[in-house]
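re: ur question from earlier - yeah i can do the single chain one, its not a big deal. heres the input i used so u can compare w yours
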Amino acid sequence: MKYSIKQIIDEQKSFHSYRYLILRNDKPIALFTHNHRGECESLVTLSDGKEHHLPFGQCSEFLIGGGSTPLELSENALVFIQSLI
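and the output i got, formated as tokens:
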């Protein structure tokens, strides 16, 4: 299965949350959010709308890459996501 990440670009405001759509085989499966300090806030599975507690402190433990490298799920994030679906 192929997972990909797409950032949801909203009108940026100070101290806003950053949102990312997690896709599996190009189908949206979850919404991940972190705050402006990089702290994980939530993960909502789109199939049931349920918010899940994240066992990650910083978004860098959940997402890797960025800049010139595409965003990807970390190894631990993959295991966590797969346990939910």
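The longest helix spans residues 75-84. not sure if urs matches, ping me
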